């Protein structure tokens, strides 16, 4: 390989022999050659490609399709390439288009023509599907572990801030007071579902397409279950056409990654709001914020904003692959070369976003008094006053109307419900007694929500204990 090829120079010589070129008499156009190559993307599957090739060569020897000495030479050569990949000694060439041809070229340079026997009973079609599944399976397992770390962070945060009351919102308007811990445990549930989705996807990822050939299988007496076993797959694909055509596993991953990023984006939106001067519920750490080039006072929530922004990128990757796949006939089509870049990008984006949240959340400074004061505004205890009247026999719809009038009265006087005098309240309903002031206190409003999954401290403690048990098994 000359220096231009090592550097990925697009002016490299066309004398480079194409491994598929026997049927062609003319040269490939230089722009086509560059346009057709995918090595800049799929080189990150080098380890998986070599691993799959080692399994394939081993199986071919076991079935007597390759002589044992041939298989030994191939496997040793592949392991040598693997060592060079791990130590970053390999320079990939666009003249060999993709990771599969690059590895085969390197193997040929090292062990000679016997390397050409490695491709017996397989195609790049089943080869790339195998590599992609192996790579994505490992990435998914890493993400499942990262999601468990994030969930632990939320549980620890909830445990640490258990007594803090904040306003709960609907329509971004104060609705009812809740515990901050209850609010954050909602995110624990969201990320738990994300982890469960990725876990469930593994049973469809752990299926081996190797041996499906280009689309129709092979006439060689291969053992597909043996290569599946060596590569850690649980079973093999049942239909060779589907094996090379299927990218559902990539679409499924991008769908789940998009949902997880949406969860992160919603969290980041709230952290951005809460850290604004108007809310002042929290202060974000210096480690996860930046300043302004012109305004010295600024402390910008750039990490949260970038996570929010990159959510569109991951969702866009899902839409992109859906559009690639929507009109493809069976079996493999070159369009499917576009399947990996978006997945690789989504994995990286979700990984770093989860890591950033996991490190940022424990260092947030919570302003408990500010939250508590905000929770008492907006007549957030109005529902409890209606419940109070309902418990005294007034139909809830009538109680709702009575409390609406009391809210209007308090609003006109510029006071909160609990600051109305008893006599003023009784002008609207004589069912109201002096005990109403205990009912309307924010702490009492929160502690009254004892239904399963509610915001009462007893219920939130139960949520935290349950979460720790689940995470202990994660």
Give structural notes.
By secondary structure, this protein is mainly alpha-helical. The protein is 59% helix and 4% strand. It has a two-stranded antiparallel sheet with strand order 1-2. Helix 7 runs antiparallel to helix 8, helix 8 runs antiparallel to helix 11 and helix 11 packs antiparallel against helix 12. The longest helix is centred in the first third of the chain and has 37 residues. The chain is elongated, with a radius of gyration of 31 Å. 39% of the residues are buried. The N terminus is likely disordered.
Low-confidence stretches: 1-15
Strands of the biggest beta sheet: in what spatial order?
A: 1-2
The biggest sheet, with number of strands, parallel, antiparallel or mixed sense and barrel status, is: 2 strands, antiparallel
Range of helix content: 55-70%
Number of extended strands = 6
Distance between the termini: 48 Å
Based on Cα principal axes, name the global outline: elongated
Q: Please count the helical segments.
A: 20
Instruction: Give the DSSP E fraction (strand runs of 2 or more residues).
Output: under 5%
Compute the average pLDDT: 93
What structural class results from the helix and strand content? mainly alpha
Radius of gyration: 31 Å
Encode the helix/strand succession as letters: HHHHHHHEEHEHEHHEHHEHHHHHHH
């Amino acid at each position: 390989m000359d220096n231009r090829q090592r550097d990925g120079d697009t002016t490299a010589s066309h004398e480079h022999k194409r491994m598929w070129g026997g049927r062609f008499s003319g040269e490939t156009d230089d722009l086509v050659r560059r346009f057709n190559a995918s090595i800049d993307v799929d080189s990150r599957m080098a380890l998986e490609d070599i691993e799959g090739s080692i399994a394939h060569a081993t199986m071919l020897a076991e079935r007597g399709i390759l002589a044992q000495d041939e298989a030994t030479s191939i496997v040793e050569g592949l392991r040598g390439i693997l060592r060079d990949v791990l130590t970053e000694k390999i320079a990939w060439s666009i003249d060999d288009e993709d990771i599969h041809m690059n590895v085969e070229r390197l193997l040929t340079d090292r062990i000679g023509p016997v390397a050409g026997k490695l491709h017996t009973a397989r195609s790049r079609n089943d080869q790339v599907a195998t590599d992609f599944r192996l790579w994505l399976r490992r990435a998914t397992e890493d993400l499942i572990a990262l999601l468990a770390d994030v969930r632990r962070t939320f549980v620890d945060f909830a445990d640490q801030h258990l007594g803090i009351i904040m306003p709960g919102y609907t329509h971004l308007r104060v609705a009812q007071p809740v515990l901050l811990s209850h609010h954050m445990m909602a995110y624990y549930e969201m990320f738990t579902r994300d982890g469960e989705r990725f876990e469930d996807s593994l049973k469809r990822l752990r299926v081996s397409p190797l041996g499906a050939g280009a689309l129709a299988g092979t006439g060689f007496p291969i053992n597909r279950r043996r290569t599946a076993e060596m590569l850690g797959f649980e079973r093999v694909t049942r239909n060779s056409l589907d094996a090379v055509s299927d990218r559902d596993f990539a679409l499924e991953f991008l769908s789940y990654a998009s949902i997880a990023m949406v969860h992160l984006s919603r969290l980041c939106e709230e952290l951005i709001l809460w850290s604004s001067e108007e809310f002042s519920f929290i202060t974000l750490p210096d480690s996860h914020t930046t300043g302004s080039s012109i305004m010295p006072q600024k402390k910008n929530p750039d990490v949260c904003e970038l996570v929010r922004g990159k959510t569109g990128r991951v969702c866009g990757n899902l839409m992109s692959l859906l559009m690639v796949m929507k009109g493809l006939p069976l079996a493999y089509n070159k369009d499917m070369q576009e399947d990996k870049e978006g997945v690789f990008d989504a994995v990286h984006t979700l990984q770093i976003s989860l890591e950033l949240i996991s490190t940022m959340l424990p260092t947030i400074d919570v302003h408990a008094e500010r939250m508590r004061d905000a929770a008492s505004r907006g007549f957030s205890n109005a529902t409890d006053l209606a419940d109070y009247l309902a418990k005294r026999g007034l139909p809830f719809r009538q109680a709702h109307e009575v409390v609406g009038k009391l809210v209007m009265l308090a609003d006109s006087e510029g006071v909160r419900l609990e600051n109305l005098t008893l006599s003023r309240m009784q002008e609207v309903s004589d069912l109201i007694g002096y005990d109403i002031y205990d009912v309307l206190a924010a702490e009492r409003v929160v502690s009254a929500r004892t239904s399963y999954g509610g915001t009462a401290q007893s219920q939130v403690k139960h949520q935290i204990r349950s979460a720790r048990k689940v995470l202990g098994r994660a």
